[in-house]
């Protein structure tokens, strides 16, 4: 047995075959799910201190030596795309814009064949300065985290008075063509439903797509409470009282959000035309979509996770730095995916919150 840098058991052997596991083609698990979406955390560092993610004083960041280098990050993404069927890559954090080589990594991913769809999830700080360069490097679209439009509430949630910078970033992303620009919102228990209405109005006015996400137990303080969480049903009830929400005829597929068309509104489409405006609600807790999950996750320190809530990780960084070839790494990745669990088990009495908070896992 190998052990990850966190002391978590890893693969028994990266070259051992597993009965029934396909050794070529896209990655699959024992439940028949095909993995095509890679989430890459570029850093665990962040310049906000959101209450549902980390404590006010922040966290102990990873040592620089533990974080994957530019070449290591590019190599792993390349293996995922060329050998394992990855077709979409989303860069996350922490705050990914804090990584100085982000455009280099994006450009390398854009040069892969077949070219993956490239997206970025960011808190928006500094996006106004980087949106053009990110688009030129090959980034296709961006999601910006914004939980409220009220300046005081934003400062209370994030512990930083920076909402003006986030709004500048949203406009810059749209100007750079990183569309559809999506806004990700996690609603605060007090006043969050009012925030949802204001956010949707803003998104409809400015051509953005809103995604409201149920708060998940991924906070560093482990204070998450189901009783305090605003549910997807509550969000839908409030929004449908204010807007004409209609069932979306577009198949959901493996997307985490259930979407509704907002009657009377349009939004910019990917090809420059206008399409019906939509709003999405991600019911990660109350209506899990694990049965359709197509994701695999790579942390900034090279740990492979098959789920946000995994209790184990596979140490790809150790394999990289031991000098093995790409095929050995690919088979280790394939084997970890084969053993993916059926779901996150948040609603099971035996559920244990992962030791890593969201900022260290990646969104």
What does this structure look like?
By secondary structure, this protein is of the alpha/beta class. The chain has one domain: TIM Barrel, CATH 3.20.20. The chain is 29% helix and 18% strand. It has 10 helices and 14 strands. The chain has helices spanning 70-84, 102-110, 127-137, 151-158, 163-175, 192-206, 232-242, 316-322, 326-338, 358-361; strands at 27-28, 34-35, 37-41, 88-92, 117-122, 141-145, 182-185, 209-213, 245-247, 258-268, 274-282, 295-298, 303-305, 314-315. The strands form 2 sheets. A 12-stranded mixed sheet has the order 9-10-11-8-7-6-5-4-3-12-13-14. Strands 1-2 form a two-stranded antiparallel ribbon. A hairpin with a 5-residue loop joins strand 10 (258-268) and strand 11 (274-282). It is globular, with a radius of gyration of 20 Å. It starts with 26 loop residues before the first strand and ends with a helix. The model is unreliable at 1-15 (pLDDT under 50).
């Amino acid at each position: 047995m190998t052990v990850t840098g966190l002391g978590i058991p890893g693969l028994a052997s990266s070259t051992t075959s597993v009965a029934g596991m396909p050794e070529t083609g896209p990655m699959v698990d024992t439940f028949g799910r095909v993995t095509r979406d890679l989430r890459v955390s570029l850093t665990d560092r962040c310049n906000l201190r959101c209450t549902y993610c980390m404590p006010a004083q922040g966290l102990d960041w990873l040592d620089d030596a533990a974080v994957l280098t530019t070449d290591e990050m590019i190599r792993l993404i390349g293996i995922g795309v060329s050998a394992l069927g990855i077709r979409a890559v989303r860069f996350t954090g922490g705050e990914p814009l804090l990584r100085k080589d982000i455009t280099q990594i994006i450009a390398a991913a854009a040069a892969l064949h077949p070219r993956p769809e490239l997206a970025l999830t960011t808190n928006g700080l500094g996006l106004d300065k980087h949106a053009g360069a990110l688009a030129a490097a090959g980034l296709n679209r961006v999601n910006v985290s914004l939980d409220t439009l009220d300046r005081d509430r934003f400062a209370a949630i994030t512990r930083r008075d920076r909402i003006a910078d986030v709004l500048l970033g949203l406009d810059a992303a749209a100007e750079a063509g990183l569309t559809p620009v999506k806004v990700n919102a996690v609603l605060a228990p007090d006043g969050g439903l009012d925030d949802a209405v204001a956010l949707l109005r803003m998104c409809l006015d400015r051509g953005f797509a809103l995604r409201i996400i149920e708060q998940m137990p991924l906070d560093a303080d482990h204070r998450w409470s189901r009783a305090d969480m605003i549910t997807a049903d509550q969000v839908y009830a409030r929004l449908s009282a204010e807007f004409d929400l209609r069932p979306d005829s577009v198949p959901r597929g493996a997307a985490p959000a259930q979407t509704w068309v907002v009657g009377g509104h349009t939004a910019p489409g990917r090809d420059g035309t206008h399409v019906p405006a939509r709003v999405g609600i991600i019911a990660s807790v109350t209506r899990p979509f694990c049965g359709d999950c197509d994701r695999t996750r790579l942390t900034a320190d090279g740990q492979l996770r098959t789920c946000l809530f995994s209790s184990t990780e596979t140490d790809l960084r150790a394999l990289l730095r031991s000098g093995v070839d790409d095929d050995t790494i690919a088979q280790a990745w394939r084997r970890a995916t084969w053993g993916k669990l059926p779901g996150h088990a948040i609603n099971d009495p035996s559920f244990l919150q992962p030791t890593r908070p969201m900022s260290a896992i990646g969104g």
